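Design a sequence for this backbone.
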């Protein structure tokens, strides 16, 4: 009798375990096989799923991720109540049935995460794919790049509108601005076909002000291949954040690479809002690196920032100061732990590593006008 029961239960047990086992195999084996991660997953399975899924989700005018987050608790409670009632009518213990369903959801979720994002951590690095030399550059070269970025950002800043505080404001509505994000990447398709994708609408998060307490500007949801943007942040940060999150939907997981691709996409945009946001953000990353090395060199580069750009820097600092606290600390710690769990020992510091890619790009392409 027991043997028959085991034979009956075993196939279901294996079914529940299989997705998690496949996810675990990918997590441990793909770091040893970057070419498999690159050509089988990033350019293969990920594309097959993300292209139709991302396009369909982009059609929806609201954030699916935010909706699911808010509905998850009442939906879960409802399903649990229905399951318990059903089991009681049959006279069986509802706990095993509940645990099996929870495990199946988690197991499938782990596999979906690995296919739609986790595996992309182990693909070939962007520097190799784009043939960029990220070896250490001199402080003088870093300063020259900072000056160039400050000059470009200051020039773009002149065409922007301002709010009552003299801070850069979007020339169009948030929705129209987000809709324009994909057009930046479309201009890169011929030169960088790896950046092609079908996600054309980064979603605005309606409860963005509350979200700012976590210190997060944007998030990519692998389950829906959806990019989400905090629209409460200063206007001039929104275009760059949208471009960063879109880079994740193109199959790139590392934060420094997405920061670099966001800079690249913004710099070729037809929109002054995007160009300014890209140059401004790239300047901030590079200037922070220069400041750590030599404060006098940083001051010389900072002098190239226009008055309007300096107001925006102060406005950004003031904005985030109001949200400092325990929630932000826990959020940063969780994000740092998550990134390190993907075998990126840099953790949350990886965002600033985009400086190496920006310097390498300048070295390869020169200081273009």
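Sequence:
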């Amino acid at each position: 009798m027991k043997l028959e029961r085991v034979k009956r239960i075993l196939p279901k047990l294996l079914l529940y375990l299989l997705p998690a086992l496949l996810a675990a195999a990918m997590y441990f084996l793909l770091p040893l096989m970057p070419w498999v991660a690159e050509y089988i997953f990033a350019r293969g399975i990920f594309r097959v799923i993300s292209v139709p899924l991302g396009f369909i989700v982009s059609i929806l005018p609201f954030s699916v991720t935010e909706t699911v987050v808010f509905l998850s608790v009442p939906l879960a409670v409802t399903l649990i109540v229905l399951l318990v009632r059903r089991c009681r009518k049959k006279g069986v213990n509802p706990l095993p049935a509940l645990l099996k369903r929870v495990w199946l959801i988690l197991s499938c979720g782990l596999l979906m995460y690995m296919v739609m994002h986790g595996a992309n951590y182990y693909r070939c690095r962007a520097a190799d794919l784009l043939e960029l030399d990220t070896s250490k550059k001199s402080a003088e070269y870093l300063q020259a790049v900072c000056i160039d970025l400050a000059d470009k950002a200051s020039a773009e800043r002149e065409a922007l509108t301002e709010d009552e505080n003299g801070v850069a404001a979007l020339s169009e509505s948030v929705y129209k601005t987000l809709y324009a994000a994909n057009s930046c990447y479309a201009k890169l398709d011929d030169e960088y076909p790896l950046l092609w994708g079908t996600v054309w609408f980064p979603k605005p998060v309606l409860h963005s002000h509350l979200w700012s307490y976590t210190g997060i500007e944007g998030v990519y949801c692998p389950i829906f291949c959806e990019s989400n943007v905090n629209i409460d942040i200063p206007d001039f940060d929104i275009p760059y954040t949208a471009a960063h999150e879109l880079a994740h939907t193109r199959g790139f997981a590392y934060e420094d690479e997405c920061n670099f691709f966001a800079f690249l996409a913004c710099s070729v945009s037809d929109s002054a809002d995007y160009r300014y946001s890209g140059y401004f953000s790239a300047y901030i990353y590079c200037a922070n690196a220069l400041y750590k090395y030599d404060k006098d060199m940083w001051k010389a580069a900072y002098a190239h920032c226009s008055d309007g750009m300096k107001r925006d820097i102060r406005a950004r600092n003031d904005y985030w100061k109001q949200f400092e606290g325990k929630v932000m600390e826990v959020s940063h710690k969780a994000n740092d732990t998550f990134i390190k769990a993907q075998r990126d020992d840099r953790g949350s510091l990886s965002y600033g590593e985009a400086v190496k890619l920006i310097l390498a790009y300048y070295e390869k392409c020169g200081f273009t006008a």
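The chain has two domains: 2-122, 131-365.
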